[in-house]
Design a protein that fits this description.
This protein has 752 residues and is an alpha+beta fold. The chain has 27 helices and 18 strands. It is globular and about 90 Å long.
Length: 752
């Protein structure tokens, strides 16, 4: 067998290259580092249990074959200690030269951490008390040519952990445990539902008509029919068709697709369970939910029956007993310290909202005003499970109205630790009412609501045959997994969460294919690069990682400000420039402290030409001319032009971090300032993130602020939408005097 000295010459400081050389040396010596055959007769955990009573220094004749990954490797003369990890746990290999053959002993010298091997030998316990296998045979099953990271667990590595989940699973046993718990939870749900008489069904993933929820869909093209279809946003309507057909209890656990943002509790592709039960009602759905959550607490979290108490993010949550049911009005009354209801005069409800810093609109009725108090103030106070009932019809347009008060709907949401886990209805089964509500949805679509449902003629036709009264409920499986595994983020319970494209360079690809044996038809590196998922330009991405050079605009701040005022007479436009200047300076201190002045002038002058040349194709093009005439460095105009690249393909795309921040801040700051004007204080200083998120979702509010541009700004900065909103909101608060001047200008008040 060739030893390391015969391997091809490599850079000994490049561990990956060294490992590839070892791989080649094995092949040259006639050893296949990736054989087909392997043998496993036991796992580490079962041996630990079986030989728990073996005394220190004890020896057995019991022989087993195990396989797993090398997690630790220590040499001591003619002895090698290897920690082998398999799916069940770890066990030590106590390797001795006199019990291994010459070839196997020589092979040990070519092994590295991360290699997958098979070891066959007898069970012993060392004198120091370590249960071990004394191998008589070692077989390499897979040579690891990329070294495992020394430290992989932690907040700073989280993006890498999610993207390279395979490494995360290798390095972090708690992640494997989380995923096992999730799998067990889903299995329990199926067994529980089947035990309650429900039938699991499968419904189509692609729908010709959007329905079942208000959400933006993913669209795909069905070639055989030559028409667009929607990836499903809910399973509701197909399942209720089955209730019409006489399948009295049905459920489906399935993937749902919503073309929306990503945050701690949302992923565009997620798992839900919807269940429908004929001749049931909300009480039936409550009983189903309490039983389901309690059995998961017992089986997954180890709780005792009757004492189903778990911990979530430091909060103790009691799932035992009968859960509280409370109306929206009751919870709003509790947090406001006075009795409120849908009969409370609108003027007083407006006063209460304003007193708690909640902005309201003139067209809101009592139900909407009452709901806002619950949603903004009450929901987050609910720690133990609570069925929140009696939602106003104004905020539940598709729910069945209560018989005794049509202003209230027969609906509940399950809230635990301030988050929603289930949504249940007494299902609407009146075909005429349903047709009318579909018509309202289509009208909303005509007014620009791209989340509104279409008119589903077939579903109304199904209801015309008669659907029995039924209770229906939907659960967020991923959120349930978060709850029962004590995970803060939805990404922590998804094996493969959605991620932004990764930056891959040609050099990265070259390093992988180097030395590969291919035929003459193999593609070159350039072709492989163009065919792979490379994300943004690698060269561009690298810029953000390099030490930033000192940048000069060629203008003093005073000269830049005078230039802004020369071409902008409207105080509103001047204030907007100052606001962006403040934001850019704020973020420059964080990302590029050497160039705060350059960042600031980019923000100050980003809309230099807008007042006099309000055209998307001319915007920033004219700015470049004006800056050149003023003697500014061309880099200033280049950076400014990037924030209009999506509307003028001739302009450069954002590459530098500064340019990406400008793109994100420009549109998002406008939404924040519009939201601030709605607040009683007229300021951003007391605006919570939750309020901003609600305004973002309400497309009727500040319709001129393009939500897709805001989303793209977050993507450019490789941030979650929620994180971007929080970051810019905090920056707006930090520069509040400037931002508030901008708000007053938009209100037509003095900017003094």
């Amino acid at each position: 067998m060739a030893d390391q000295s015969t391997a091809p010459e490599t850079n000994i400081n490049d561990e990956r290259a060294v490992r590839r050389a070892k791989r080649q040396a094995l092949i040259d010596a006639g050893i296949n580092p990736y054989p087909i055959k392997s043998e496993i007769t036991a796992h580490a955990a079962e041996l630990a249990e079986k030989y728990a009573d073996l005394e220190d220094g004890g020896v057995t004749e019991d022989e087993y074959s195990l396989a797993g990954r090398i997690r630790a490797y220590r040499k001591q003369g003619k002895i090698r200690f290897i920690v082998l990890e398999d799916v069940s746990g770890e066990i030590q290999l106590f390797c001795r030269a006199n019990t291994l053959g010459e070839g196997a002993w020589e092979l040990l010298g070519q092994l590295d951490l991360g290699d997958i091997i098979q070891a066959k030998g007898t069970v012993i316990r060392t004198k120091r008390g370590e249960l071990s296998i004394s191998p008589t045979q070692i077989v390499l099953l897979s040579k690891s040519v990329r070294p495992l990271p020394e430290k992989f667990h932690g907040l700073t590595d989280r993006e890498v952990r999610y993207r390279q989940r395979y490494v995360d699973l290798i390095m972090n046993p708690d992640v494997r445990d989380t995923m096992r718990k999730r799998s067990r939870m889903v299995s329990l749900i199926r067994r529980y539902m089947e035990g309650d008489g429900y039938i699991e069904v499968e419904t189509p993933m692609m729908h010709a008509i959007l329905g079942g929820a208000n959400a933006k869909p993913f669209v795909t093209h069905f070639n055989a029919l030559d028409r667009d279809y929607f990836m499903r946003i809910a399973t509701e309507l197909p399942l209720k068709r089955l209730i019409v057909g006489g399948m009295e209890r049905v459920f489906e656990i399935g993937r749902i697709f919503r073309n929306e943002g990503m945050d701690l509790t949302h992923n565009p592709e997620f798992t839900s369970m919807e269940a429908y039960c004929a001749y049931s009602d909300l009480q039936g759905m409550k009983d189903l939910t309490m039983g389901l959550f309690k059995i998961i607490a017992r089986e997954v979290c180890g709780c005792e029956e009757g004492h189903e108490v778990i911990t979530y993010q430091g909060q103790q949550i009691d799932l035992s007993g009968t859960w509280r049911s409370a109306t929206v009005a009751e919870i709003a009354s509790e947090v406001c310290g006075e009795e409120l209801s849908i009969d409370t005069p609108i003027e007083h409800l407006r006063e209460v909202n304003a007193a708690h810093g909640i902005e309201w609109q003139e067209n809101w009725g009592a139900g909407k005003l009452l709901f806002e108090l619950y949603d903004e103030l009450g929901e987050e106070t609910l720690i133990n499970p609570t069925f929140v009932c009696d939602y106003p019809e104004e905020v539940s347009p598709l729910a069945k109205r209560k018989d005794d008060d049509p202003r209230i709907t027969d609906r509940f949401e399950l809230v635990i630790a301030g988050h929603e886990y289930a949504n249940a209805f007494s299902e609407l089964n009146d075909p005429v009412d349903q047709a009318g509500r579909f018509a309202e949805q289509v009208a909303a679509k005509g007014f620009g609501d791209d989340e509104a449902m279409g008119y589903d003629y077939d579903y109304v036709r199904a209801l015309e045959y008669g659907m029995p009264p039924a209770g229906g409920i939907g659960y967020g499986i991923d959120r349930m997994a978060m709850l029962f595994t004590d995970s803060a983020s939805i990404r922590d319970v998804l094996l493969f969460p959605q991620m932004k494209p990764e930056v891959v360079t040609k050099a990265d690809i070259q390093a992988q294919v180097a030395g590969a044996k291919t035929d003459n038809a193999s593609a070159d590196v350039d072709t492989l690069y163009s065919d792979s998922e490379t994300g943004a330009s690698a060269e561009v991405a690298k810029m953000g990682k390099q030490e930033a050079p000192k940048l000069e605009t060629g203008l003093t701040r005073g000269q830049a400000f005078e230039l802004l005022k020369k071409y902008n007479e409207d105080p509103f436009h001047v204030s907007h420039g100052e606001t962006l200047e403040g934001l850019m300076r704020h973020f420059a201190e964080q990302y590029d402290p050497e160039n705060v002045e350059f960042w600031g002038q980019v923000g100050l002058l980003h809309d230099l030409d807008w007042e006099k040349w309000q055209d998307d194709q001319t915007h920033t093009v004219k700015t470049a001319e004006l800056l050149e005439g003023a003697g500014a460095d061309p880099r200033l105009a280049h950076s400014i032009q990037t924030h209009n690249y999506d509307l003028n393909e001739e302009l450069p795309a954002p590459e530098h971090k500064m340019e990406k921040v400008l793109y994100a801040c420009d549109e998002l700051s406008g939404l924040i300032q519009a939201a601030a004007r709605m607040r009683p204080s007229g300021s951003v200083t007391d605006m919570p993130l939750k309020s901003l998120k609600k305004k973002f979702k309400d497309k009727r509010f500040a319709a001129g602020c393009d939500r897709d541009v805001i989303r793209h700004g977050a993507e450019l900065n490789e941030m979650e939408l929620d994180d971007m909103m929080a970051s810019v909101l905090e920056a707006m608060k930090a520069i509040a005097p400037v931002g508030d001047i901008y708000v007053k200008d938009q209100s037509g008040q003095s900017a003094e």
